């Protein structure tokens, strides 16, 4: 099983900025912490980050045939990007959406995800651990 | 650690009705399947179901001092109950909201959760496994 | 054929309060008046009333296998209860929604029924006779 | 007692088009099937259809003094015609609104009836039988 | 100067129905009462009524070159007809919109006129006298 | 008969500013032009202008017993002042609302009048002549 | 005079939870503090609390003939319960709505009360003293 | 303790106009009736009325240091005045908002108070007695 | 192949009125210009215009079995007619919607087409040439 | 060049109240600090403040011919006053709107300015320095 | 004549994914199929695709002087990109908007095009043939 | 002090396209004109432009530690980019938002800035001079 973990805009700042909302782990820490989980689950993991909506669309579009599932934290693009939604729907890979913070407890424009309707499900507010649960959920889904 | 798992209206029908959305497990199966996970995590688990909004409010109100955390699937009341939200906020226990189906992919009135803003986070669309991730997330939160 | 007639909040006051809107018949009168109609249609009738949303959900959830059809006047819960809608949809029994008054001629919040989309149809504004037409419609549907 | 049954736009296609929604009866069948019911109720029946909003307004405006009650299925005009509503309100005859399909289970713009607030009540979703219940309800109302 | 006075749906019932809103004058009375005013103003008057939206559009479309101005009481079509608005805008004749009742004091859907933005102005709530003021205003405008 | 003509904010600039919308007559010209009309109608006229919402409320509140009717052009306050509406409703004098320009053809926030629902009617878009038709309408109303 | 004081969901937690919003008095303290006021006003007082919407509807429905007036703090149900509103309207007893906190200064969904329109009036934000003013207002109303 | 009682637009007409809504007491009667209450509470009372929004803003702005609390019935300005809200918030005196009628039972635009969020609380629908409860509540607040 | 080209309200004025929006071709010119295109495509063409919504519904309803496809420019009815939409959906002929002007660049109420969702597609803003592309598209669709 | 600086409601409290939002400078300090800037720019400055909407309208209406430009901080009236907008538009002087605080970061009702569309531009959130930039911008505009 | 055909996000997947909506042609096939049409029309064609909003803005911004017209299928960016709209408006080249599927028959958020108002017109729902009609329309426009 | 001036989509066209809205200065002219101002203020200035949302997010994310403040004209992204807002909020540098045109006087979708709430303030409508005032405001803020 191969899984692509996609991180969207400003997540390169994780752990460096606003730790009271996103925690002190950096994105590298987060990815490193996922490695043993992936190994336990027999998953080959690839972790990427970009601030570009088009780059995310490129990567998702190219993931078909290369990966078996996706974990996506589209960050700000969650609420504004029809393009990422369309990419996700087009490739049709099972996807779990993750948000580190509880988006439903923040500004109203963060309550709506354009991407959630084309994913398996959504995990939010459980900190960087959410990526682990997403990975485990994806593994269980792919082996069901 | 003691955790109360609360299930709201119509979840007594789980596995018996509409399995294409909620799967074939019954609520009893679901609770049984959580037992070894709880044991692994050193959690004393209690699993309840009710169709009554008032009953849910009673149970949450009485959970302070009796439990260390809550897993709540308020089902239909998720979208209509200010009373459950207020109960949850009042007792202040760490809570993970769970939905078996992906509420963001169903009717628009199911996209909004009145309860999510007063929870740690929300897991939806990952089937009955969502309860397990919620339990694990709660355990990690309580021991952090 | 067995049919359950469910009456929601404040219908216990029927005939006792606001007769200019609901008529002077009591709920008991209404049920009694349905008996010969049910007999004519070879229907075994059961008539219940409750002010509790959870109780309505309980009864609907338990109606599968026990009844062949439902007549529901959810009264105020018509406009606010996703739980009753879900119960109805889950058990999947043919249901006719009845309202004694013309809900479309009253306050705007009474114009929308959360329950109607999961029923066969809706009858409103025809007084307590609406229950009779609902029963006849259900019988015709069940024997079609 | 004389009753005018008015059918609006596209109902001339009844039974010929989209039978999965409206059934296989033609409008003529429907009217024929109402005849014995009308006789049983001592009602002189007149059944008309038009695709013209203005024609419907003409007929309703001319019905005062000629008829004792109306059964109206305004079809698409239900949701857009203030003119039919005004005609109905102006002549003041007791009217029952009928829809063959359950308008509350279709597109959102079909959930609102501009005409319902000036009728006795509304019957929808009970197929072409709805006309019969409307006729019976009107007879009971007129002889009450 | 030639002026066409157009009356829309249900105005044929004027004086016969709901006199508490529209007064006891019939449409014929109203037109007769306008004759001496027209004569005083040197206006050749033509007074028409129809319940058909398409008929109104026909008449307005044909009025260019035949009339110098229009007085329109589109009644219910005021709030729903883009077609009449377009006809009016296309022929470009100076037009005064009239309503017998005060539309701003009735149901909210009567507060908006689709036609007003393409007229010189609007007179409402002044009873059938409104037609006279409209005629005088039109005369003054045409001779300015 | 005594009639008070009230003019609201910025109408002191009439004829001096933006003549393409309001014409070239000054407010004084307008009032002077009303004098012979008032005389013809046996009306004692008083013409006032203020930029103050409170001043308008004062004058309307004091008009009961002093005047038989009001002509009000509340200008910008038309769309924002509940206070003027309440004053008008409280004193209960027959009132005609006037606007020089066609408010329905301007910005959307000018389409709604808070004052219209408590007036006899509204005249707009007929230039400063609207005051004359308002006066004539008021006279006819008061002598009916 | 007999007055029923009804307290809705989560008010059993009063004084125990979130004292910064609701104060430190328990519900029992609150009721005890009302006793001498009731005695001064010659009122026989009964104080009840429930988390159940249906229970509130039951109690209000049964209050006719048993009580002369109601003081209701419906808490969360204030904003969601058409059933309690209908119960209140049906029994027709004079009612004063009370809220301990200033609901207009909290989340937007708390600004609207479905119950207020069928009460005499509303008191909010004056802490638990609001019950005393409500009782005094009710007494003055009943003896007026 | 010094308390300023501020009355907004049209309240000078109290008892003179629309007594079915506001009662037959004049504003002078109301103020006179508050005097013994104030004396009982050791409050020096000042009662003012104005129709001017700016005047209300002036008075509130100048009240800091001169008064210990405010009772404000802003009448129509309640629903439209950000300026009064800002004044109130700026001076920061404890304030109780009063409305004689039940604003929640009147037109929808009266249901929202721009001022309530910056007050201690709101009393409405209890007639002119509301001022007395406001005064008592303010006294209790100031001496708590 | 037989194709019916339907033109709605005010299109009889084409080329005669507002040429800056619709061009200088008359409707007859437009139809004449389509003839050689139809011949090239082996299409028997019929071109009709009406200002009547009911007439359009009649024609569409009667087109089944008589025509193989429709080109519809419903003009103003595009934005208001559920009846035409229903007719189109009922007969189920492949239809291309045409607008001469760019409806998305005009008033907001012209941006929504009730008819588009039941058509193959929509062409707008390309002038009277749009009819030609529609015909070609229909031919290609019918021969695919 | 003569410039009028207009300050709206509650700005007389500047520096005295809520300094965390508006700073500690008084309005007098602010005006004094503008004097050398005005001198540098060869501007004759006049600085006024009022709490009255009507007074602001009076001053703006009278500014034509007396001043070459305006700097307006309408404070609370920014969001509610069509009258000030109309005054500004009528006199047509180049105007810069200033707000001391960042209105876009405060309550949602402060995000919309009715006045901005008729000004050159808007400066907000830059503290009392905003007046200086406004003055400099106006000078540059007037001398361009 | 030189025409640039711009394709937006996910169109690189055309023919590879979701063929039931977009057909089986690849983007390369589509461009190849346009070549003979372009030759027939004497158009030099350039066909590009990108997933990047910024890249589309770059290309449109650079098209002035290089091309005579544009055909744009902005796909998902159609509904979210003000930047592309601004680019299009800025360069001012005649543009035809194309969508392969009927966007008006899909999710509501696809019904609105931010780009359409600054284009000549829009073609949607006619499959990949839409590009051909767009090219022909552009040629006719450029040679008119 | 180091300040980064960021320019968003289509600003590379400044002075080349639509000079009636944005003036005739090119972006290079604008930056050149800022140099002496920056020198006067002892600011090291860097001026960049991109059409890419992701590129803007990259630059802002990397600005922490490298710059002391930001001047941002996000152009079209102002109204659609949550990502830029999040970047700005994350790095926490004092920022002044600039718009060359008066966005409040253009289309309604340009009235809302997603970025303004996380900036010090906003300057709009003052042409390219707005950048200078922004720079001066930033300098004053940083040295305060």
Report on this model:
With 144 residues, chain A is an alpha/beta fold. The first copy, chain A, has one domain (2-143): 3-Layer(aba) Sandwich (Rossmann fold), CATH 3.40.50. Chain A is 36% helix and 18% strand. The first copy, chain A, has five helices and five strands, in the order E-H-H-E-H-E-H-E-E-H. Chain A has helices at residues 19-22, 27-40, 53-61, 82-91, 129-143, and strands at 2-7, 44-49, 69-73, 95-99, 121-124. A five-stranded parallel sheet of chain A has the order 2-1-3-4-5, with helices on one face. The longest helix of chain A is centred in the last third of the chain and has 15 residues, at 129-143. The radius of gyration of chain A is 14 Å and the shape is globular. The two termini of chain A are 13 Å apart. The model of chain A has no long low-confidence stretch (mean pLDDT 96).
In a nutshell, what does this entry contain?
Twelve copies of one chain form a homododecamer. The first copy, chain A, has 144 residues and is an alpha/beta fold.
Q: Which properties best describe this structure?
A:
homododecamer, 144 residues, alpha/beta, Rossmann fold, five-stranded parallel beta sheet, 5 helices, 18% strand, globular
Layout of secondary structure:
The structure is a homododecamer of 144-residue chains.
Chain A: E1 2-7, H1 19-22, H2 27-40, E2 44-49, H3 53-61, E3 69-73, H4 82-91, E4 95-99, E5 121-124, H5 129-143
CATH topology of chain A: Rossmann fold
Strands of chain A, total number? 5
Q: Topology as H/E string of chain A?
A: EHHEHEHEEH
Task: Give the name of the CATH superfamily of chain A.
Answer: Dehydroquinase, class II
* Helix percent band of chain A: 25-40%
How many helices of chain A does DSSP assign? 5
Low-pLDDT runs of chain A: none
**Integer-rounded radius of gyration of chain A:** 14 Å
Cα-to-Cα separation, first versus last residue of chain A? 13 Å
Tell me which protein chains meet in the greatest interface and how many residues each side has. A-B, 25 and 25 residues
Number of domains of chain A: 1
Give the rounded overall mean pLDDT of chain A. Answer: 96
Described by its quaternary structure, the protein is homododecamer
Task: Quote the beta fraction of chain A.
Answer: 15-25%
Strand order of the largest sheet of chain A: 2-1-3-4-5
Q: Which structural class should the secondary elements of chain A be placed in?
A: alpha/beta
CATH architecture of chain A: 3-Layer(aba) Sandwich
CATH class category name of chain A: Alpha Beta
The backbone outline of chain A, from C-alpha atoms, is globular
Main beta sheet of chain A, described? 5 strands, parallel
